Amino acid sequence: MENNEENMSFEELFNNSVKDVKLGKTVTGKIIEITSKGEIFVDLGYKADGIIPKSEYSFNENDNPNDIFKVGDTITADVLKQNDGLGNVLLSYKRVKNRDFKQKFEEKVNNNDIFEEKVSEVTDKGLIINYQGIRIFIPMSLSGINREENKEDYKAKTVKFKIIEYDPKQRRIIGSIRVIKDEEKAKNEKELWENIEIGKEYTGTVTSISSYGAFVDIGGVQGLLHISEISWSKNVNPNDILSTGQTIKVIIKELDKENKRIKLSYKEKGTNPWDTVDQRYNINDIVKVKVVKMMPFGAFVKLEEGIEGLVHISQISEKRIAKPEEILQINQHVNAKILDINKDTNKIELSIKELEGTSNEYIEEM
Questions:
Q1: What is the mean pLDDT of the chain?
Q2: Of 116, 346, 353, the residue nearest 228 (C-alpha)
Q3: More confident residue, 17 or 87
Q4: What is the pLDDT, as a whole number, of residue 311?
Q5: Do the strands 172-176 and 158-167 form a parallel or antiparallel pair, or are they unpaired?
Q6: d(CA 19, CA 16)
């Protein structure tokens, strides 16, 4: 009988030598050479060696196997072909690496972990992140980008996000930056309510201004800074003192944790000028005042910032008048005589009538 082995072709001999090396099988061997082209030759313990071409090493074509491996190291790869045409078993390292990566990726998704990666593309619909071969889409509504920002500035920017929808079969992976911001806001708000107390000082940001005051963000929580807490002047316009986006120092004045309401005071409001009013003014003093408000019963005048007094309609002129506007104008400066000071009620009564003839001229404030 003829020797069966002698009658076998080279291909049959080769296939017989690697019969345990099946397509798709994961094998482990020792690196015997890394070529200048980035090819990795692997001793699999068979007659045929394995080869990992540069294209099957990594999804990133710039990766160099010499940066990770050296001759003698052990490497695991998937079998792509039993024969690459040159007598080597064709292997893929990137498939194993990608499989392990996807497993770790899914673990992070299931653990609700935070990802931190660079934005690879910006579109009208949102941001795209290429996470080592995995395409993640962040819709504009979940990007946390506000109207004042330029979305194009996010190209190549590193962002933190979470995966909120994961369907690999449909290739649908949705991320959200906003969810992290919302979580951080909720955390900060929780910590603030646990530690907040009356009299405590905070640095806040003015978020909106209205006729009755301003709302101030003190760390995820909005507090009301009433107009009466912005200035000692009664007729002040909040927009003349504050501006949206301004950073200010505020103090907790009132607190309702149950209904989550906060009233603030403005630190730069200063001390109450009424506390020392009797040190600067006396009854019968003649002072120059500014008309700031008209009422049917008289006119309010400003002596200084935070100190206002009333000139009753009967004390405006010797003539009988029906309303203050017949004699006075807003922003008019006149001399007046102090008739009474009540420090307890913060009231000063004045008379223009008693000085009539000496204060007819007025000055319009420019």
A1: 87
A2: 346
A3: 87
A4: 97
A5: antiparallel
A6: 5
R_g of the chain computed on alpha carbons: 41
Three-state DSSP at 139 gives strand
d(CA 214, CA 225): 5
Q: Which domains does the chain have, with CATH numbers?
A: 4-98 (2.40.50.140), 112-180 (2.40.50.140), 196-269 (2.40.50.140), 273-355 (2.40.50.140)
Cα(159)–Cα(323) distance, integer angstroms: 65
Q: Which of 289, 287, 276, 292 is nearest to 240 (CA)?
A: 292
**Contact yes or no for 38/24 (Cβ under 8 A):** no
The torsion angles phi and psi of 209, rounded to 5 degrees, stand at -130, 135
Mean pLDDT of 311-325: 94
Strands 89-92 and 74-81: antiparallel
Candidates 299, 177, 307; CA nearest to 233 is 307
Q: CA–CA separation, 44 vs 77, rounded Å? A: 10
Asked if the model's pLDDT at residue 153 lies above 80, the reply is yes
- Quick one: CA torsion of 73, 78, 81, 85, rounded to 10 degrees? -20
Helix, strand and coil content of the chain, in percent to the nearest 5, comes to 25, 35, 40
Rounded mean pLDDT, 107-122: 93
Burial of 154 (0-12, 13-18, 19+ CB in 10 A): buried
Band of the pLDDT at 22, cuts 50, 70, 90?
low
Q: Identify the pLDDT of residue 357.
A: 64
Determine the Cα–Cα distance for residues 291 and 303; give it in Å rounded to an integer: 9
Q: Reduce the DSSP state of residue 176 to 3 states and report it.
A: strand
Distance CA 65, CA 94 (A): 11
- CB 353 within 8 Å of CB 318: yes
- Enter the DSSP assignment of 124: S
C-alpha span between 32 and 40 (Å, rounded): 8
